[in-house]
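Final report, results section. Input specification for complex C-07:
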Amino acid sequence: MEHRDEAPREGVTEMVNNGAPDVEVVARVLGGDGEAFGILIRRYEPGLLRFATRMLGNPDAAADAVAESLVRAYRHLAQCRDPERLRSWLYRITGNRCRSHLARRHTNDISLSDAPPLADGSDTWGDLERSEQVALVERALAALPAEKREAFVLKHVEGMSYEEMAAVTGARIPTLKMRVHRAREALLAALEEVVR
Amino acid sequence: MSPIDPRLQEALDGERDPGELPTDLREAHARLIAAAQLVSGTPQLSVAARVMAEIRQNPARVEAGSPLLRSIRWLGRPVTVRLRPAWTLALAAGLAAILLLPFGPGGPVPGVTKFVGHFPGARSVEVVGSFNDWSRGALALNDDDHDGIWHADAVLPAGQHEYMFVVDGERWVPDPLAGRYVDDGFGEGQQNSLLIVRPAAAQP
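Structure output:
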């Protein structure tokens, strides 16, 4: 991965996160202040990178997807019909980009080579190191179909309401609830199967 | 995989107090919440510098923010002709009649694209599209006689253009008379209107 940069320093992140509302920043960018787009990047890239990483199972692929999405968002910022819901719009673009990446792999599932190794089945949950617990959950997430993985991540990792998830995915709320419910069932089953 | 108790789903959806769950469901609730927290860490990387470099390298969208620059650029592009039908039958018939006339002195001006929309009661209507980088405030429609029919002329280059009407500065509306539409690429099944401008040499 050639273009990965260091994460922003905490002070910088705080400064940009405490700044003007999205609507004002969007207006500045549309008014010709392209540098102001950096404020929006710093504000939303941690969540977008987290979301894309969980969707693609690979930080490098996630970085590519997020970078492409942010450039696309900049180019089409005037098409953002409701800047007050900029976060949903950015997640929607990133979700679409992740789906494109997955489609190029000819499968909706994350390749097992991308997922961390399985924990030893003889262990109990409490016996596992935190890194092993993380690896186990990542692998269980990776085994989910993309739509269910996306629904679970938006709900439980990004903490979105079903209304915002609908804005991000374009799916109806009952459909999203069903996907989240099925994802929970699959995850719980996977966790109980591996760690008893 | 078997269905999990609906009470657990309700608790996870915030519709039920987890403390009211039986012990086994409470444990399952805690396990799922803990699993989500385990993968909630923020990756220690940033694409900010990469994205800003790309933007600075090709700041086309920002440049498009100046109406004067856009106008100058449009005037420098190849001249084409396209006329659009009107919203109302009468105006559509009138425009159709104009389309049938041969170009010449007194005829329609080559290079002009006419946008027409019926928006009674609207305070403002403008067109944004791929031809002006979706910039607001670049091409306003007028309704001088207050009949609800808004129109504007623009010179567009040959090719395919996506566009939308923006009504009262906030409502994005596809052109019902466009005839062709394409997905806007941002999910939700939203569509942009499609306008195809033929090269001047191909005009009848």
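The first strand of chain B starts at residue 112 and ends at 118. The CA atoms of residues 7 and 21 of chain B lie 7 Å apart. This concludes the modelling results for the funded period.
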